[in-house]
Design a protein that fits this description.
The protein is α+β, with helices and mostly antiparallel strands and about 260 residues long. The chain folds into two domains: about 10-80, no CATH class; about 85-250, no CATH class. It has three helices and 15 strands. The protein has helices spanning about 10-35, 35-40, 45-80; strands at about 85-90, 90-95, 100, 110-120, 125-135, 145-155, 160, 165, 170-175, 180-190, 195, 200, 205-210, 225-235, 240-250. β9 and β10 (about 180-190) form a beta hairpin. α1 (about 10-35) crosses α3. The longest helix is centred in the N-terminal third of the chain and has 35 residues, at about 45-80. It is elongated. The two termini are about 50 Å apart. The relative contact order is 0.07.
Length: about 260
């Protein structure tokens, strides 16, 4: 997004005066062109006022030209469009991809990528990718490096991630290595076709990978998946039917019904 400075009240009044002068000059110029009477009434003082308004109109035009140049320069630096196929952040990006980067001219620091057609990333046909990036700074808070932590993919149809069928029209989150390549599955919204212990997992359930619940004494529980069921969705848990809420699965994707420890 192009940064916009906060203007003081005085600056706003000055800008308003220049815009009003430009409008007055345009109206006066049209009258001079279209009316012989207006041309005859041009005396020395009217010509002086007309010249002042014309000068203010020129300054207004130069101001808008400068704004346009700044916007174009900003887009070129921070919102580039790829002119050719490129391998960036572990992704084969086609020509026409629109990027939003954190560092000027540095495509590897992109935080958003919009593809002109679906691009295969991991097991998902993505149209849009958004990365969460951390920055490394020195003692003077100058940025030294950018490191992506995860990438959120949105696309079409379904994605197959870690043997889960994910709804690609909602963000699918994947952990990434420091170079941007995919490291591991993190979370997604379930599509149709997932099964847990021989029963269908309701569409719309939120699937989250976990390394296990960690207790204060260092004990790590056996849960490896958290499943948040949609409100009102049914799933058999043990000898009961659960409506909505959360369930935990172990590494074999079996429902954990007993206390974690």
């Amino acid at each position: 997004m192009i940064p916009i400075p906060v203007l003081s009240l005085e600056a706003i009044f000055i800008m308003f005066a220049f815009y009003a002068a430009t409008l007055a000059w345009l109206v006066w110029t049209l009258r001079i062109i279209l009316s012989a009477k207006a041309r005859r009434r041009l005396g020395p003082w009217r010509i002086l006022v007309y010249a002042i308004l014309a000068a203010m109109s020129c300054l207004t035009a130069l101001y808008h030209y400068d704004l346009h140049q700044q916007a174009a320069d900003f887009k070129m630096k921070f919102e580039p469009v790829l002119s050719e196929n490129s391998f960036i952040g572990g992704i084969d990006m086609p020509a026409g991809t629109k990027l939003v980067v954190n560092a000027p001219y540095d495509f590897e620091t992109f935080r958003e990528a919009k593809f002109p057609h679906p691009v295969r990333i991991s097991g998902t046909d993505a149209l849009f990718a958004e990365r969460y990036i951390t920055t490394e700074t020195d003692e003077e808070f100058s940025i030294l490096d950018y490191t992506p932590l995860n990438i959120r993919l949105t696309g079409i149809g379904e994605g197959l991630e870690n043997e889960w069928r994910c709804d690609a029209t909602h963000p699918i989150t994947l952990q990434t290595h420091s170079d941007g390549s995919v490291k591991a599955f993190e979370s997604c919204m379930a599509a149709v076709g997932n099964r847990i212990e021989n029963q269908p997992l309701p569409k719309g359930a939120e699937i989250i990978a976990t390394d296990g619940t960690v207790y204060t004494d260092g004990f790590v529980a056996s849960d490896r998946w958290l499943i948040y069921l949609p409100a009102g969705a049914e799933l058999s848990v043990g000898n009961k039917t659960q409506f909505g809420g959360m369930i935990r699965l172990d590494a074999e994707r079996r429902i954990i019904t007993k206390p974690l420890r």
